């Protein structure tokens, strides 16, 4: 069966030519950035002095091959648009990050994760090939083997410092019309991590198959795992896009059903639980809040406005409240260290709830070991849990802004883990290079961006360039 075109025909070659011309127009020595309408970054950045790269025509799905279970997708295509193209075929990407406006290129170069990651790894592990605009201004096609294999391997977690993906070919997987959920409560964190190990090994729980798994910790004595099974036959599904709020259902129901579409975006409607900061979970406010604005990109826009104008911060100062430190992080902790880390986090940082998403690098289909990714060096064959926490904490008297984040970074490293770089990072350069494959990055950088036109990885992630 031939791959099907989707939506209206896209002139991909013209879109790439437009990108290359806009790249050539950036003066030497000036920072190179994408001109994007949305962002899921929480790293403040210096103001650009030049126009961003024109990626406006690189936001579509080029084709879906239902038989080969692959899709060719432009780099700036959002997962929302990608899912809209694949679900009619009963297919979904192997990993669909939680938020609608995350782009495929962004999830590969900046990492992503979701509830299928305990069996499918991270989004870049389903990429078969990708076209990259390199720092030298050339377009190269990188694959796991061949001339540009080192770029393929180093691209994940390079954050645009090695180039920008213009097209990606990814694998797809079958998904049912519905997703049946089991919300299982744990009062001991060791029991929870034992359950993660069992499901990862057997892909089942209590005799029922598990296709996806994530969870929430409200406190060390109250945590939940959600075991999801794809199905075509189910009871009438729940709806958490209206008055009901998804994360609260974990405490209220032991079994639940969602449509496949609503399951993929179950966390987006309330930005996990962060919509509470804007009053969007108050019953009266929620009824008045237009449904089209109950989504993560709108909440993120409100956060950017606050960063720019500091309205809430000024009100807190007038009320005599202490300044607050933003603590917005996702960290990967080895499974055998997860219970201790969660207890430490609850007692030291005190934010709750926190998201739990088990992760294991994808196992190869045939003989051989799992591929490793040097710029985010998780260990093949080992289980991890992504722990996500997003909010702010008061800055204690005598402490400096960033101290809590630095303490978390130290604890993550002591636990043998890693943290994603979409938000604030405070590592010195030696520690950063040691944790994020500095030697490999420099070798690939020198080959594909010999004049270092693209901003470096440390400069992006830590120096906020």
Automatic annotation (TrEMBL):
Its main location: membrane. Keywords: FAD, Flavoprotein, Membrane, Oxidoreductase, Transmembrane, Transmembrane helix. One of its GO terms (cellular component) is membrane. Residues 1-175 form the FAD-binding PCMH-type domain. It is found in: Membrane. Signal peptide: none annotated. It comes from the Bacteria. GO terms for molecular function: Delta24-sterol reductase activity; FAD binding. Its EC number is 1.3.1.72. It is a single-pass membrane protein. The keyword Membrane applies. This is Delta(24)-sterol reductase.
